[in-house]
């Protein structure tokens, strides 16, 4: 039950996270949560601004005697990724998240939890509300639509922030301080897929790939998890080559920054080949399951009788489309030579949709270097135009270059060591934090990102470790006092 969260410590943070769980806030549908935060700030009597991009800024004066301290911006985003299990009836635009306590974890029933970034937003609200936490001049920046394009950060006006230090509360490994992130770029691939009438004497099937783990296409891309779009395309290519299969439709994935967990297609096969086509799937499913046993043990492949479509994609066009999906750059492309274990460049074949006469594939490219991003673009243009498809790139956002000499980083390292008797880790992250955009708009900001331990964000398996939230909160309070 939701009320379980209200008994957790630190209670102010969990109370605000509980309230955020009650407020629908999928990306692109943030009116209700924005109204909540604006009302919260004004009820406290604090200066509260809402800008044209949907961001909310709340300013709180310094604790008496700390007026001359550097100004600090606490930054979190308001939206959450709307992912749910197959068969789950949850309506993200209207229903509250059903969060519950599971040992030392908080999870959600059948959906993403929204700890990314609800814990960070709840922490900022708890600081704003507190009458006991000491701090210098404070701003809380709640950005809009981070998960679906970072349009809030991109729409931030230069000069609107007064602080000189930005603490981003959107990281997912407690005990790690992040000082850099990857930039991103959207790739949209368009295929012409002329239709033709289905000749008589065919049987229709629906082929489904499901049960994959999915996850964040930056944070989890190095885990070797399967991409449902790639798995399904490979299966269908095999069927087209050996059983005269025709493709009617293909649908997979839902968000650019989530590794697709499910994909499905409607196909037809000549009556005389239908039995052999159906019979090949158990062996293929077993082979794929064995291949993915360590990284994605829940993978399942189903083939069921389907309704006969009125038309199918022309054979050559369908073949080019499926070959393009199978050859699309996907997963880890290059590891960093500078930071051990860090992915430098990656790509996620995130969303695939067919419609009459056309097919679209949407990918998110990430790289921490300009050269790596150019290499990715070259790879896409090498695969798709020769197949007759177009590759358009848009929505690019900058990375955040690490500054190991950051004064606030050194202060935070000492504060963490003082609290917990050990040094925190310092790293960069292969994901698109808003720090890159905000730092580009507001040159000179000293920035560090940190947060509690969150696992499997952007998937229904998402959870936050309760004990890590307490450590994250105590650390935040200590840092605000010492800056």
From TrEMBL:
It catalyses: Hydrolysis of dipeptides, preferentially hydrophobic dipeptides including prolyl amino acids. Gene3D superfamilies: Zn peptidases. GO terms for cellular component: cytosol. One of its GO terms (biological process) is proteolysis. InterPro entries: Bact_exopeptidase_dim_dom, Peptidase_M20, Peptidase_M20_dimer, Peptidase_M20C. It holds the Pfam family Peptidase_M20. Its EC number is 3.4.13.18. Its cofactor is Co(2+); Zn(2+). It is an enzyme of class 3 (hydrolase). Keywords: Cobalt, Hydrolase, Metal-binding, Metalloprotease, Protease, Zinc. Residues 209-276 form the Peptidase M20 dimerisation domain. SUPFAM superfamilies: Bacterial exopeptidase dimerisation domain, Zn-dependent exopeptidases. GO terms for molecular function: metal ion binding; metallodipeptidase activity. Belongs to the peptidase M20C family. NCBIfam families: aa-his-dipept (TIGR01893). This is Cytosol non-specific dipeptidase. It comes from Chlorobium luteolum (strain DSM 273 / BCRC 81028 / 2530). The lineage of its organism: Bacteria, Pseudomonadati, Chlorobiota, Chlorobiia, Chlorobiales.
């Amino acid at each position: 039950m939701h009320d379980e969260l209200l008994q957790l410590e630190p209670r102010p943070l969990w109370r605000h996270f509980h309230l955020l769980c009650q407020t629908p806030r999928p990306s692109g549908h943030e009116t209700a949560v924005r109204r909540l935060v604006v009302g919260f700030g004004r009820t406290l009597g604090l200066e509260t601004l809402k800008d044209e991009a949907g961001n909310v800024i709340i300013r709180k004066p310094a604790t008496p005697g700390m007026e001359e301290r550097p100004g600090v911006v606490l930054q979190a985003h308001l939206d959450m990724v709307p992912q749910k299990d197959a068969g789950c009836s949850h309506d993200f635009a209207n229903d509250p998240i059903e969060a519950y306590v599971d040992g030392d974890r908080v999870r959600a029933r059948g959906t993403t939890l929204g700890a990314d970034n609800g814990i960070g937003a709840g922490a900022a609200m708890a600081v704003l509300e507190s009458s006991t936490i000491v701090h210098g001049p404070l701003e809380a920046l709640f950005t809009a639509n981070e998960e679906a394009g970072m349009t809030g950060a991109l729409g931030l006006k230069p000069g609107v922030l007064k602080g000189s230090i930005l603490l981003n509360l959107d990281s997912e490994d407690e005990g790690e301080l992040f000082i850099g992130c990857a930039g991103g770029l959207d790739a949209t691939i368009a295929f012409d897929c002329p239709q033709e009438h289905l000749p008589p004497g065919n049987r229709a099937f629906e082929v489904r790939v499901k049960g994959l783990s999915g996850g964040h296409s930056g944070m989890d891309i190095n885990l070797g998890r399967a991409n449902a779009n790639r798995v399904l395309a490979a299966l269908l290519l095999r069927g087209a080559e050996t059983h005269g299969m025709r493709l009617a439709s293909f649908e997979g994935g839902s968000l650019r920054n989530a590794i697709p967990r499910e994909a499905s297609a409607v196909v037809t096969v000549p009556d005389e080949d239908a039995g052999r086509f159906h019979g090949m799937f158990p062996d293929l499913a077993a082979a794929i399951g064995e291949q993915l046993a360590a990284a994605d043990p829940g993978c399942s492949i189903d083939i069921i009788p389907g309704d006969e479509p009125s038309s199918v994609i022309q054979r050559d066009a369908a073949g080019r489309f499926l070959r393009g999906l199978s050859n699309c750059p996907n997963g880890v492309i290059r590891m960093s030579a500078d930071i051990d274990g860090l992915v430098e460049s990656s790509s996620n074949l995130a969303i695939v949709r067919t419609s009459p006469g056309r097919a679209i594939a949407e990918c998110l490219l990430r790289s921490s270097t300009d050269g790596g991003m150019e290499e990715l673009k070259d790879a896409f243009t090498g695969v798709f135009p020769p197949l007759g498809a177009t590759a358009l790139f848009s929505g690019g956002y900058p990375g955040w270059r690490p500054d190991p000499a950051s004064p606030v980083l050194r202060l935070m390292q000492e504060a963490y060591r003082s609290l917990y008797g050990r040094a925190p880790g310092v790293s960069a992250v292969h994901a698109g934090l808003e720090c890159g955009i905000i730092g580009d708009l507001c040159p000179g900001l000293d920035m560090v990102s940190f947060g509690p331990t969150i696992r499997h964000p952007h998937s229904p398996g998402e959870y936050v470790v309760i004990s890590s939230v307490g450590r994250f909160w105590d650390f935040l309070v200590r840092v605000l006092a010492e800056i």
